[in-house]
Design brief:
With about 180 residues, this protein is of the alpha+beta class. About 30% of the residues lie in helices and about 20% in strands.
Length: about 180
């Protein structure tokens, strides 16, 4: 179990395995930007899409503000998000969620998350080494992008930030909404 069935409140939810997922459910999750898709060239080249879609899925709560991606790029990607500016609320839910997932893993197999003393938490993606923490915000930036994305990239570099498209680092960009995050 990704999160114990005993979870309550905003961590309570359901796991949806990709294998056997109803096509309407899958397409809705993709359209809502909640579900990862196969076909990422970088993941394919790295051999991370072998045996697609077996062993992959998504857990989310009713409000879709707490999600856990299983075996997408990393073994687990634990996500807390919501619209608005309640950053503290999002972070508190994330902390509780990480603890709940860790407790569930420990109860299932008796093991903790893999933590290396030198490198931190082990991930598939080398940019996530260390804490693996990536905080981001989706924001409309029409003023920064009207003269070209290069100016936005330069400003983000000055601030040790990273602009991405709203479909991930290799998923492309549409419009002037960007995912701005810390750099690893």
């Amino acid at each position: 179990a990704v999160v114990s069935t005993q979870s309550t409140g905003d961590l309570a939810g359901e796991y949806y395995p990709l294998t056997g997922m109803d096509e309407k459910v899958r397409q809705q999750l993709v359209d809502d930007h909640f579900l990862f898709m196969s076909g990422d060239r970088n993941l394919t080249v790295a051999g991370m899409e072998r045996d697609w879609p077996e062993g992959r899925g998504i857990f989310h709560n009713k409000e879709k503000t707490f999600l856990v991606w299983v075996n997408e790029e990393d073994q687990l990607r634990i996500i807390s998000m919501q619209k608005g500016g309640d950053v503290l609320g999002v972070f508190k839910r994330l902390a509780r969620g990480i603890s709940a997932v860790g407790d569930s893993v420990k109860a299932e197999c008796g093991k903790d998350f893999c933590l290396d003393e030198k490198y931190g938490y082990v991930h598939s993606c080398p940019t996530n080494l260390g804490t693996g923490m990536r905080a981001s915000v989706h924001i409309d930036l029409p003023g920064w992008t009207k003269d070209g994305v290069e100016k936005l990239q330069a400003r983000c570099e000055e601030l040790a930030l990273q602009p991405r498209g709203t479909r991930g680092e290799s998923g492309g960009q549409t419009g002037h909404t960007y995912d701005i995050s810390n750099k690893h």
